[in-house]
Design a protein that fits this description.
The complex is a heterodimer. Chain A contains 6 helices and no strands. By secondary structure, chain A is mainly alpha-helical. Chain B is mostly helical. Classes of the chains: A mainly alpha, B mainly alpha.
Chain lengths: ~140, ~140
């Protein structure tokens, strides 16, 4: 039961950010959607109406930095997984979130909170898929390395 | 003004991810590792976020429109189709392989760890590639 209070408080902060985004701008807070919209805006050169996307994403990074600074939180350990794994995983996450219209924030938090069946189904499937992947990965590492 | 609010919302979201330990991929993998040293942390993050959001949305939707926009922009799709299912499976494999989903990955750029930087670049390429090659609807 380590850090239950921190996990809950962090979740509440994420929830407050999400409801304020709906209250002010009427928008779902899905990070994969905000990111893909930013990339599409770069390509279509319709930058001005999409500057908020870049600022929001920059805010994520600044928020992480500020939190470590203000609460003197230790930084997480550097992941020791090979870069090749990161590259393959990144591609899959990029393609999968576009195909499925959302990720942990858009489907997992916003969608489930709106009682969307699509989002509930997506969340159950990507969580199960990730759990199976971790399990197979462990098997593979045990038997082949 | 709008842009400043968005920046602050991003900071709040990023701070929430960080405080709850979600920017550390080991915590995510610990949650996904149901046959190992399973950690329920992510469930508490989701419970915190979903309870606030579900109640907040319910209250906000009494309004006819948002404060700084003309209407609520909600996803139109309702049906469960093949792209949704396939997308969720593919996303899940990537999530399980490296312990990062889009939010924590971008917030985690702060650490400038090689793994995270490569993951994010690759994720952006995946998004661009999909958007360029997807069938026109």
């Amino acid at each position: 039961m380590d850090n239950v209070v921190l996990a809950l408080s962090g979740g509440v902060m994420i929830g407050i950010s999400i409801i304020l985004n709906m209250l002010f701008f009427g928008r779902i807070t899905g990070i994969s959607g905000i990111t893909s919209g930013a990339l599409i805006a770069l390509k279509s050169k319709a930058l001005h109406p999409n500057i908020w996307r870049f600022l929001f994403l920059l805010g994520l990074i600044v928020g992480a930095g500020l939190t470590h600074f203000l609460f003197a939180l230790p930084l997480p350990n550097e992941p020791d997984r090979p870069v090749a794994v990161a590259i393959v995983a990144g591609l899959l996450v990029g393609i999968g979130t576009q195909l499925g219209n959302g990720c942990t924030s858009g489907h997992g938090v916003c969608g489930i909170s709106r009682l969307s069946t699509r989002s509930l189904v997506a969340t159950i499937i990507f969580t199960a898929s990730a759990m199976i992947t971790v399990f197979l990965n462990k098997l593979f590492l045990e038997y082949f390395l | 003004m709008n842009i400043l609010i968005n920046f602050l919302l991003g900071i709040l979201f990023g701070a929430g991810l960080t405080i709850s330990g979600m920017t550390d991929p080991e915590n995510i993998i610990a949650f996904l590792d149901i046959t190992g040293r399973w950690s329920p942390n992510l469930i508490f993050v989701m419970v915190g976020a979903i309870s606030v959001t579900a109640i907040g949305y319910r209250i906000i939707f009494f309004r006819s429109q948002p404060i700084l926009n003309t209407k609520f922009l909600l996803p139109p799709k309702k049906s469960i189709d093949r792209p949704l299912l396939m997308g969720a499976v593919i996303f899940g494999i990537g999530w399980g392989l490296n312990g990062l989903c889009p939010g924590p990955a971008i917030a985690g750029l702060f650490y400038l760890y090689e793994n995270t930087v490569y993951f994010v670049i690759s994720m952006l390429l995946g998004i661009i590639g999909y958007q360029l090659l997807k069938p026109k609807t």
